[in-house]
Design brief:
The protein is of the alpha+beta class. The protein folds into two domains: about 230 residues, P-loop containing nucleotide triphosphate hydrolases (Rossmann fold), CATH 3.40.50.300; about 130 residues, OB fold (Dihydrolipoamide Acetyltransferase, E2P) (Beta Barrel). Helix content is about 20%, strand content about 35%. The strands form four sheets. The protein has a six-stranded mixed β-sheet, sandwiched between helices. The radius of gyration is 25 Å and the shape is globular. It starts with 9 loop residues before the first strand and ends in a 7-residue tail after the last helix.
């Protein structure tokens, strides 16, 4: 496979109102995979189609390295057949009258087209006998391998994958995940994946691009977004389990330098939590807050630790339920003090075996990992912001 220039990054900026709202920026470096995630109707496939040239955006700029594929201001729009994009679709989009070898050789015009097609099919795991079969004679997983081979054989400048694994069973999907991971060792081009499966996105992609209602809300590593989502909408989309609401009081005379107070709960049950003050939120404003998974720990001793750090809060809590989810367990805890909120934690089997419903224990909340976000209206939440 050819090795593009180290500067062959994909850069997209789009801002259109019709025929649908589509706005935001996206950056994908060579060899990097970004996953477009969000609910149905978020605009993920539409954004992918704009990159491929299958849809002409009202106002956008799309560049790959020094090549401009779209610039609405200058009137530039390169048609899809001239963009050298590798596309992998959910429904495979294979020619039914051609065998696997013919499908992969189809986009090639060189004299050695069959040799290259055969080598690429072998690279994705098809046997010589399977290469002679038509799509109807292949399993779903084998058809998707042919589709991947067809996308890669032309040595694309960008690889686009539109929910490529959603039509196959879970076992086949895991095998295709492994195949894609192996292929990525040889692919030095930007890769954009559309998926509804958040676990798939975390497993395969280097970064997430979170979308809602046509707008790019945030781009970054999955762990970074979980630790500090831009707003409550992002937190909901990426599935942050422990999200709560409160009021930002800001710093006062008792605050340490760089700290402010978060009021959580109402009346006598309210707690005041000292958290980092980023000076981005006005005092008195309602906020949502989240805590990263590793910011929550449990202790079988419900008594508060007299030596606990000032950056941690220990809350007595009751085990509501334990649910087995394959290799992990989901624990639901209800705090006995403060707002009596319910927290959710993922535990290993060994940790879960020591717990029973109704048991009282201590929940340790690391205040250093608490992240607060302003609560805004839907329209302001969906206003795109620079990502880089």
């Amino acid at each position: 496979m050819s090795q593009p220039s180290p500067n062959a990054s994909l850069r997209v900026h789009i801002d259109q109102q019709r025929p649908m709202r589509l706005a935001g920026t996206l950056h994908c470096a060579p060899g990097q995979m970004v996953a477009l995630v969000g609910p149905s109707g978020a605009g993920k496939t539409s954004l992918l189609r704009c990159i491929a040239g299958l849809m002409r955006p009202q106002n956008a700029s799309i560049h790959i390295a020094a090549d401009c594929w779209c610039d609405s201001v200058r009137g530039v729009f390169v048609p899809p057949q001239q963009r050298n994009v590798g596309l992998v679709f959910q429904d495979y989009a294979l020619m039914p009258h051609l065998d696997a070898l013919g499908n992969v050789a189809l986009p090639l015009r060189s004299p050695d087209r069959l040799v290259r097609a055969r080598a690429m099919l072998a690279r994705v795991g098809l046997t010589p006998e399977q290469m002679q079969r038509r799509p109807a004679q292949l399993s779903g997983g084998q058809q998707q391998r042919v589709a991947v081979a067809r996308a890669l054989v032309r040595e694309p400048a960008v690889l686009l994958l539109d929910e490529p694994f959603s039509a196959v069973d879970q076992m086949t999907r895991q095998t295709l995940y492994t195949l894609l991971a192996e292929l990525r060792e040889d692919i030095a081009v930007p890769m954009v994946l559309v998926t509804h499966d958040m676990n798939e996105a975390r497993l395969l992609a280097d970064e997430l691009v979170v979308m809602a209602e046509g707008v790019v809300l945030q781009q970054g590593r999955a762990d970074a977004i979980h630790r500090a989502p831009r707003n409550a909408r992002v937190a909901d989309i990426v599935g942050i389990a422990n999200r709560f609401e409160g009021v930002w009081e800001g710093p006062d005379a008792s605050s340490s330098p760089g700290q402010g107070w978060l009021r959580w709960g109402q009346g006598e049950q309210a707690l005041r939590l000292p958290v980092r003050d980023k000076r981005r939120i006005e005092p008195g404003q309602p906020v949502a807050w989240v805590v990263a998974a590793h910011g929550l720990q449990i202790d079988s001793d419900a008594a508060p630790d007299p030596n606990q750090q000032a950056s941690a809060l220990h809350l007595p809590a009751t085990v509501l339920s334990l649910r087995h989810l394959g290799e992990v367990w989901m624990l639901r805890l209800q705090c006995q003090s403060g707002p009596q909120a319910v927290f959710r934690l993922m535990l290993t089997g060994q940790q879960a075996q020591a717990l029973t419903p109704g048991q009282t224990l201590a929940l340790r909340l690391d205040l250093e990992l608490l992240h607060i976000m302003p609560i805004r209206s839907a329209s302001s939440t969906l206003t795109p912001k620079p990502q880089r």
